[in-house]
Amino acid sequence: MEQIEDNPHRHLEDLQQIRTIMERSSRFISLSGFSGVFVGIFALIGEYIAVQHFHVDPFNFDLNSYGVLHGLPFFGNEYATPLVPGWHFSLKYDFTYFMVDAVIVLLLSLFAATTMSWRRARINGDKVWNAASKRLLANLFIPLAAGGIFCIAMLYQHYVDLIIPATLIFYGIALFNAGKYTLNDIRFLGIIEICLGLLCCFFTPISLVLWGLGFGVMHIVYGIVMYYKYER
Question: Roughly how many angstroms between the first and final C-alpha of the chain, as a whole number?
């Protein structure tokens, strides 16, 4: 009789194990919460460095006031003519500075996410490079690549004020799209990024603040929540 009574519990455990195996084969569930915290910190540091270098007010940010629309590196102009009298800057230098800042933040973020996820996968006994992680990366980077090309096109066409919103929107779409192949929680982060990007479209003077909130603060909050929910 005891064996018969225990059978339902054993069957439930077997079903749970089967479900876990299926999730590991179809989803990459070894994303590290700490990587999100580091990504957010890197984003905030990168934004702070850019703000200090360009001497802009993040609560009253207007690219037009810095003459960006009056000359771009694509057209071979070395100096911009700002709308603010008596203030000049070198487009080639400042544009390069901005790009280096952004690339460093991106590389540090990718390194942190890859290293910590790899470490967590080893702890869980999972493979980092498998069918699930390949699908995750494909669904993540295709929207990101499209967004990057779109931002370059807007820069070329002088729609500079919409570049910051576009980065948030396309990043949010990438996260929402990749959420099918990893933890569902990442889709909520994607929705938040999209909403912040749409707000940037209507409130461009505070777009830097919203960018920092999306890429910085929300990543830190997301990372902490993921750590306490799945890793602690």
Answer: 39
Cβ atoms of 166 and 138 within 8 Å: the answer is no
Strand partners, 79: 90
Residue type, 55: H
119: tokens are: 């470490």
Q: What is the pLDDT of residues 96-153, one digit of tens each?
A: 677 788 889 988 988 888 888 788 777 767 666 777 777 888 888 899 999 999 988 8
What single DSSP character describes residue 72?
-
Q: The whole model's pTM is what? A: 0.75
Please state, in angstroms and rounded to a whole number, the distance separating the CA atoms of residues 218 and 131: 29
pLDDT, one tens digit per residue, over 25-64 is 556 666 778 888 999 999 999 999 888 877 777 777 665 5
How far is CA 75 from its chain centroid? 30
Query: Could you give the CA distance from residue 22 to residue 31 in angstroms, rounded to a whole number?
Result: 17
Closest to 222 measured CA to CA, from 179, 160, 181, 161:
179
